Amino acid sequence: MTKKIILLLALLLASCVSISVDSNAQPTSQPDFVTSTLMPTQAGYVPPTLTPVPESTITPTRIPVTAPANCTDSAVLVRDVTIPDNTQVKAGEKFTKTWEFINNGTCPWFGYTLKFSTGDKMNAPLSAPIPDTLPKERVNASVELTAPASNGTFTGYFTLNDANGNALPIGTEKTFWVKIIVGSGAIVPTTSGVNPTQAVGITPVNNGGGANCSFSQNAGYVNQIASMINAERANAGLPQLTINAELSSAAQGHAADMACNNSISHTGSDGSSSYGRALAAGYSGQFYEEIIYGGGGPEAAMSWWMNDKIHRDAILNPNTTEMGVGYAYFSNGAYGDYITVDFGG
Predict the structure, then answer these.
(1) Which of helix, strand or coil describes residue 254?
(2) Do residues 153 and 190 make contact, with C-beta atoms less than 8 angstroms apart?
(3) How far apart are CA 29 and CA 26, in angstroms?
(4) Confidence band (pLDDT; 50, 70, 90) for 259?
(5) Cα Rg for the chain, rounded, in angstroms?
(6) Is 167 left (phi over 0), alpha (psi -120 to 50) or beta?
(7) Residue 135: CB atoms within 10 Å
(8) Direct distance between the N- and C-terminal alpha carbons of the chain, in angstroms, rounded to an integer
(9) pTM for the whole thing?
C-alpha cells in the first residue's frame, strides 16, 4: 500500500508544468475604469446635443452676377421718394433728393452711378453711387444738394450711368430732375442777358393754354438750329434736310407746350406722344423722330445733342429727308429756352 502511494505521487510531480517567474516584474494593478471604442461616425450623423439651423434663418449672401452677353440697360422712374416737384425750400438749405427706379433691363447694375447732367446744379457732386440692383429689382437713388442762395424756381437734370459712364435710357428720355422753389419763387434772370421781346425776329405769342403763359418765338433761332443741323449732316456726308410745314407746326406747338408747362418731355401736357402730334398736324410721312432741349439757346442745344449718341444718331439719320424746328422762350419757365426738332421721311 505504501509503495502505491509513493508511485502515484511521483507520477503527479512528473506531470507538473514548470513556470518561470521574473522577480523584477512589477505587479499588475487592476484599472479603476473601462473604456470602450465607438464605431466610426456615419456620414451625415448629427450629435443629439446639436440642433440643426433651419435654412430660413440663414441670411443669404448676394453672389456677384456676371452681366450676360449683349444685355440691355433700361430704367423706369417709379416715383419721387423725397422732394416732390415744386417743393419749397429755404435759400441755402441742404436737402436729399431720392428717386425710386426699377431696373427694367437685362443687365445687373453693379458700379452704376447718378450724375448731374444740366440745369441748376445746386452743389451736386460729380457722381453718387447707386446700390447694386439686379434686373427687375427696385432701388432708391439719392443725391445731396444745396438750394441756391437767391429766390426762384430751380431745376436740375440728372442721369443714371453704367460702370463705363454711359447714360441709361429711362423710357424715351435719359434725364430726370429735381425741381424746387426757393423763397417766394421769383425767377432768377437768364444768363443770356438778352430781353427776348426786344430781339429781331421775336414775336410775343399766347398759346391759348393759359392767361399767364405769354411766350416768345424767335425766327432767327429756328433758322440757326436748322442750319446747324444741316451743317452736321454735310460734315457726315449726308444730304440736307428740307423744312416741312407740318413738322414745323408740330415742333412749335410742343416747344410752346413745354415752356408754358415748365417741362422737358416728349409727352405733351395733354398726354400726347411726339408721333401723335405729328399726325395731328397733318404729317403723313413714313418715318418720324423728335429731339428736345431746354435752356441755353441753339449752340448749347447742338452741343448737347451731338455729344449724346441717341440725339446725334437722330440728327445724322440717313433715312431722314425733312424737319421742322420749334422754339419758345418763357420768362417764368425754369429754363427760359425750349426747343423741339421733329424729323421725318
Answers:
(1) helix
(2) no
(3) 9
(4) confident
(5) 42
(6) beta
(7) 18
(8) 151
(9) 0.44
Structure-block grid coordinates of residue 244: 416741312
Q: Retrieve residue 159's grid coordinates.
A: 442721369
Query: Which 3 state secondary structure label does DSSP give 196?
Result: helix
Beta strand ranges found along 147-227 (DSSP E):
152-161, 176-182, 202-206, 214-218
In angstroms, the CA 177 to CA 300 distance is: 19
Residue 125 CA to residue 95 CA, distance in Å, equals 13
Return d(Cα 98, Cα 128) in angstroms, integer: 11
Over 70: is that where the pLDDT of 182 sits? yes
3-state secondary structure of 305: helix
If you average pLDDT over every residue of the chain, what do you get? Answer: 76
208 three-class SS: coil
C-alpha closest to that of 255 among 293, 214, 306: 293
Residue with cell 435654412: 55
Angle at 307 between CA 238 and CA 123, to 5 degrees: 160
Per the CB < 8 A criterion, the answer to whether 287 and 275 are in contact is no
pLDDT at 124 over 90: yes
**Three-class SS of residue 306?**
helix
pLDDT digits (tens, 9 = 90+) for 35-46: 333 344 455 545
4: Cβ–Cβ under 8 A, 6 or more apart, which residues?
none
Distance CA 59, CA 37 (A): 39
pLDDT at residue 34 in the model: 39
